């Protein structure tokens, strides 16, 4: 049961987040008329610091901060694929986000599907990109609530029964109101508190853990013995050769998928320019270091003998914090992780609402909708998404949300050819991209479901199957179909839509006149 000091600190952090959300309207106030760009993208006005806070706070979610250490607690080394994956994201973001921002700003695009619509002149392709993004985002949104519940339950801050449900609703209600009124500005200001609280509390927790357990060596040796080894060098804390393909493909596939999520692109579109995005991409590894420390705490939970409930390994670190930390510090950690869920949850609901309004409502229902009406519909859809996430968490098992999120990662990766490849070449035929998307969706879903909702699947014959990430296998099929289909459709003379962007139709390399260096 939580003590008074823990509860007071926790409430102080949550109260601070609420107060910051109220001040969101002061962040770059504007006298412009209501527009979707203003509500969903903060008028594309965020500088490097705010963009770094928002993008990092959006990518590194509360569930990530509990799931990664939970996986480390249960499986050891394989959990740390998340560290190289978030490092791989940085150079990809450096190139893709800045290029996509430039095109989006020039043509007024608000979503990735807007870009696809303009690039290929294909409403059906834009529609499937938008719907795939919404479909992949909704279980991810629900997982933020699961992360909050796991943390609060482990800390004794989540009452049983209806009272606990009311706590969850109350936490989300303030976020819903702030997001409804101020759009992306609300999670942007809250992200500042998230960064400070998480960085400070995690540093303190790791310092105390190392002091009490005797350093990194003692922690890893103790965890190794819990996993059945003799020391860190002879235990599951090290990758075995047969785990390396899964580790590598998970890291690569997850990195490619992450930048296709609507909430990540929404945070990127809110920057004030491509230069800002390049600066932020260089600075994002600071958040990766934070994730690595959370993974280390999962190892520390093993070393200290924490007994997480069956099927609830994500509670290992909250239980460790509750066991080792004084009440005020534990309350700070729990508050930080809870705030860590509010930022991505808000951005996810905004991104899903924006995709629906721009690429479904305006495209197919009300093409003449005024900007004011688009904002009104987006606000309603955003609120509905949050209510749906709460109902999802209360109405279904936790494992259902986790399974759907695993599928969501595989699904969102299938829009990579249309969005990311389309930034550099328009040669792929939109109908071939649609066919590739369909093959990738079906193949990826089949592989994941066949293995009991495992994202790592065995492929191959002969000496033995190799385990790889299902999303990456499905993406390869997707690309093969898209390339082969383009060749067939061009040979048959099937027309394609007009390209309304100013991007080159094919990938070219030119030289900078002042240096002679190659550039795409």
TrEMBL record:
Keywords on record: Membrane, Transmembrane, Transmembrane helix, Transport
Keyword Membrane annotated: yes
GO cellular component: plasma membrane
Membrane topology field: Multi-pass membrane protein
Transmembrane segments: 6-24, 45-65, 77-97, 125-142, 162-180, 192-210, 246-270, 282-303, 329-357, 377-396, 402-425, 432-449, 469-489
Main location (coarse class): membrane
GO molecular function term, any single one: transmembrane transporter activity
Family: Belongs to the sodium:solute symporter (SSF) (TC 2.A.21) family.
Name of this protein: Sodium:solute symporter
């Amino acid at each position: 049961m939580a003590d008074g000091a823990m509860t007071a600190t926790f409430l102080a952090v949550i109260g601070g987040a609420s107060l910051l959300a109220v001040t969101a309207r002061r962040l770059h106030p504007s006298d412009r008329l209501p527009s979707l760009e203003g509500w969903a993208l903060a008028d594309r006005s965020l500088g490097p610091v705010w963009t770094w806070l928002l993008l990092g706070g959006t990518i590194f979610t509360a569930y990530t901060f509990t799931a990664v250490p939970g996986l480390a607690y249960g499986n050891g080394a394989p959990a740390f694929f998340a560290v190289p994956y978030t490092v791989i994201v940085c150079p990809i973001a450096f190139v893709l986000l800045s290029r996509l921002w430039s095109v989006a700003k020039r043509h007024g695009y608000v979503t990735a599907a807007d870009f696809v619509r303009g690039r290929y002149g294909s409403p059906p392709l834009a529609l499937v990109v938008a719907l795939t993004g919404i479909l992949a985002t909704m279980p991810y949104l629900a997982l933020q609530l699961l992360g909050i519940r796991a943390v609060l339950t482990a800390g004794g801050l989540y009452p049983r029964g209806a009272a606990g449900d009311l706590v969850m609703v109350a936490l989300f209600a303030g976020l819903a109101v702030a997001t409804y009124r101020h759009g992306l500005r609300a999670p942007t200001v809250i992200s500042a508190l998230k960064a400070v609280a998480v960085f400070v509390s995690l540093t303190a927790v790791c310092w105390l853990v190392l002091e009490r357990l005797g350093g990194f060596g003692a922690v890893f040796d103790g965890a190794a013995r819990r996993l059945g080894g003799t020391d860190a060098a002879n235990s599951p804390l090290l990758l075995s050769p047969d785990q390396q393909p899964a580790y590598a493909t998970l890291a690569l596939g997850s990195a490619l998928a992450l930048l296709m999520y609507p909430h990540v692109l929404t945070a990127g579109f809110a920057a004030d320019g491509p230069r800002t995005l390049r600066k932020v991409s260089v600075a994002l590894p600071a958040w990766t270091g934070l994730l690595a420390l959370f993974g280390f705490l999962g190892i520390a939970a093993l070393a200290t003998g924490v007994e997480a409930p069956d099927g609830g390994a994500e509670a290992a670190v909250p239980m460790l914090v509750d066991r080792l930390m004084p009440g005020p510090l534990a309350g700070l950690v729990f508050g930080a992780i809870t705030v860590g869920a509010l930022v991505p949850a808000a951005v996810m609901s905004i991104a899903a609402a924006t995709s629906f309004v721009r690429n479904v409502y305006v495209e197919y229902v009300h093409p003449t909708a005024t900007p004011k009406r688009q904002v009104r519909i987006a606000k309603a859809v955003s609120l509905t998404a949050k209510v749906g996430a709460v109902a999802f968490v209360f109405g279904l098992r936790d494992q259902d949300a986790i399974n759907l999120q695993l599928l969501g990662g595989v699904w969102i990766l299938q829009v990579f050819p249309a969005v990311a490849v389309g930034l550099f070449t328009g040669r792929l035929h939109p109908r071939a991209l649609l066919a590739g998307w369909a093959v990738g969706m079906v193949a990826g879903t089949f592989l994941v479901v066949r293995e009991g909702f495992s994202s790592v699947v065995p492929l191959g014959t002969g000496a033995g199957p190799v385990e790889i990430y299902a999303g990456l296998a499905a993406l390869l099929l997707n690309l093969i179909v898209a390339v082969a289909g383009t060749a067939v459709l061009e040979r048959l003379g099937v027309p394609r839509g007009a390209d309304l962007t100013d991007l080159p139709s094919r990938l070219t390399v030119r030289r900078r006149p002042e240096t002679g260096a190659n550039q795409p």
